Amino acid sequence: MFITRPDVKQKRMADFLDWTLSTLSKSSFQTMEGTIAIDGMLQALAQLFKHGKREDCLPYASTVLACLDNCKLSESNHTILRKLGVKLVQRLGLTFLKTKVAHWRYQRGSRSLAANLQVTGPSQISSTPEDLAGDEDEDYDIPEEIENVVEQLLVGLKDKDTIVRWSAAKGIGRLTGRLPKELADDVVGSVLDCFSFQETENAWHGGCLALAELGRRGLLLPSRLENVVPVILKALTYDEKRGACSVGSNVRDAACYVCWAFARAYEPEELKPFVNEIASALIIAAVFDRDVNCRRAASAAFQENVGRQGTFPHGIDILTVADYFAVGNRVNCYLNISVYVAGFPEYTRPLIDHLVNKKINHWDGVIRELATKALSKLTPGATEYMTSHVLPRLLPAAVGKDLHTRHGAILACAEVAHALYSLAAHHNRPVTDYLNDESLNGLKQIHEELFKRQLYRGLGGELMRPAVCSLIEKLSLSKLPFHGHSIIEGWQWLINDSLKKLHLISSTSREKIKEAAVSALAALCEEYYQTRLGETDLRGRDELVSQYISELQSTEEMVRCGFSLALGSFPNFMLKGKLKQVLDGLLKVTSISSRDLSFAEARRDGLKAIAKVCKTVGVKAGGSPSDALCKDNVPQLYNTFINCMHDYTTDSRGDFGAWVREAAMTSLMEITLLLVQNQPELIDPDMCKRMMCCLAQQSGEKIDRFRAHAGSVFLHILHYNSPPVPHIPHREELEKIFPREEAAHLNWNAASQAFPRITQLLRLPAFQYHVLLGISVSVGGLTESTVRYSSQSLFDYLRTIQTDEQPLKEFCDLLLQLFKDNLHNDRVSIPLLKMLDQMLANGCFEMFTEEENHPFALELLSLCKEEIKKSKDIPKLRSSIAVFCGMIQFRGDIRKKILFQLFVLLCHPFPIVRKTTASQVYEMLLTYDDIVDAEILDEVMAVLSDAAWDAELPVVRLQRNHLCDLMKVPKPMLVSKSNQP
């Protein structure tokens, strides 16, 4: 680029630098133009000092550094400018220093993985700083500008952007490699100052990157490891709360990079004093870190240390389970990998301590719950440590001040106590062998302390309630000796209060509290009420059941949901003699009235509770309806389930009645299979037929998820053989349509697979009506794939019967009956009109079009007119217009009636309806050329196309009447309101 003559080269460089520095000093990064100019100048200077000869650049380095200081790029908001500033500073620093490799740096001798893995092989001798001390170059003066350069790079390590910190870290590494040992050690000390708890996560991240660069280059001497390793161990668990989330994942990731770099940089002997600490910290990060990138980084660093160092305890065994890909699933890490790793004594306590110290108080509730489950899994391998150290630490934390710590500690106490019980039961020992009196008293006092301090209120209570309910469940399952203690009444109060206040709890926590309370109630009754009730006290049972039944009529939907599921969770001894009352109460919850029309969730949970209660009490054909399922209450249950399968209530949430239908199908299947296994004679043929027909209808409807559920239930009942369900209509034909070997692979979610099968049920008389009802909703739906495959399957079926008069007549009668039954039911009538339009367009009724005034056409016309009478529903009106135009293919006087109806719609109050009618009639006349005489066709078409059908009604009416005169159709007459009845 420069002429080779030295004097010319120097002059060109001087001129270039003068111009660059002048431009740089005049520009400001406060404007876009200034930013662009500074960007270009910095890039040019960075390239110059990178590729230029040191002796040529050195005379100008001080001037450039001074100019750079004046620009104050560290105050710029532009990341790229700050990065270029750091890059240029490090290039200037390298220009000030001689180009040489520091002979004091640490150099590892062996670089062979195979040699490191040979435990008994000869060790390679590494070159230590002491061995090379004699090779140290003579001292030379360090320019005073270096202090400024290092200071700017250290500031860059704390920058808010990663790319700036990364560039500064690389600069620190390159610059330190040219400094004398003493000054380099000062730089390392300055880097370590970044790891102060007064510093932000940016400083910690930049410090980790710098340490990794120094270690990778051999500039971090072994003597410094005792200062560096504790810092890195802290960085591996760095997690700072910021509002509703936390920061620090980048710090933990960079700390893993430091450990990875150390594995390559040092001899095993140098890291030997720190092996156990580093190995434990890395495996903890690989298994328990919240972020998948950190878990994988830790696993990679662990693997690198196992390969390069060969001193990590059980490294190869652990890597077979906790490799880079296995740690990708967080649940698997907590519940499976951690248990395997804890099987090695070196890692057991570190894993447990980390969960107790760092994870049960984590800001993320999911992590807290996973941590407590992990503690439960780890308990069998460290029983003594859990009972003597962990549980005594958890009990005070369970009533502490910090909300998250309290929540996690309560869950942990529950899980550990239940794990200890399971261990005791496995060895046929009482649980008190593991839980002493102090621990038992601590577990009892958790609820009492929280109640006394009113910690069940407010947002904090939304965490405490499910946590303590989980504690109640686990302690009840653990059969702790609390029988007859007042704590049982306190627990019962909490369960009742939580269920009564569900409507006051936020929607995000409501479901969790409901499930936790119901589970706790079931366990509490099973363990602590059965013995007491079995002796004398039945009054308490009766009061509790009566109280729960009365709450089923609450005006709050969530209260109904909670107490319905609570009744469903009662054990058999609680329901004995009370079954009729319980079922009557639940059946009222599932009924629809004007007051509770929108209570779909209550109806859903009521159906679930009915099924649970029935499975609990069992079946006894000749028994009492107060004690078991019998011939007196089975028909009532089936009627309830089948009625709920017709729940299509909607609101702003959409078709939320689908929740009820789904629960009804599931409950119906459970009750049916329960009866089949015990008293199949209780299944009435008519009930079975209604059940299968309703399931078939749901299997042909438009919502994929619920269609799939209905299809699954339908096939499960059909193919159940232990013993088979009796009275299924057309069983042989159904088994041919749905072979047992193909049922498991049929994807009901895919319309392309479901509808070709379900349409075949139209051939079976018992299923025709219900299947056609389900399919018509799909054919006239909105989802493209559902409409395409459902209509295609329907037309495939119709093609097989459209030349056979009797089957086609039966199908048409069925279609008309379906229309009659659903008049003014928009959920069915609008899709049905759309389906009729498609059927008419595809010539499905061609056989009937040859006969004049066919009864089917007359009846269909009458039903369509009735459907749209006084309607203001535009989609319905537009669908009916298409049907009228399609019916014009029928011959006889009906054509005049159809045209009359279309001309009525030409003067509809809504302009969009008038325009749609004109357009559809125009297309109709083009399609069917025998409707209008040829001599007036052009004039009729001109009126339809040219008239302004969205004009005022008197103007439109003149055009319409002109069409009536041309086509000899009676003119529709206005009906005055005074003459209307």
Which features does this protein show?
single chain; mainly alpha; 67% helix; two-stranded antiparallel sheet; 981 residues
Main sheet characteristics = 2 strands, antiparallel
What's the mean pLDDT score? 88
Q: What percentage of the residues does DSSP assign to strands (E)? A: under 5%
Assembly state:
single chain
Side by side, the strands of the main sheet go 1-2
Total beta strands = 2
Please give the count of helices: 47
Query: Considering DSSP H and I runs of 4 or more, what fraction of the residues is helical?
Result: 55-70%
Pick out the low-confidence regions: 119-138, 532-536
Structural class call reads mainly alpha
N→C terminal distance: 102 Å
> Over the alpha carbons, how many angstroms does the gyration radius reach?
41 Å
The 3D shape can be described as: flat
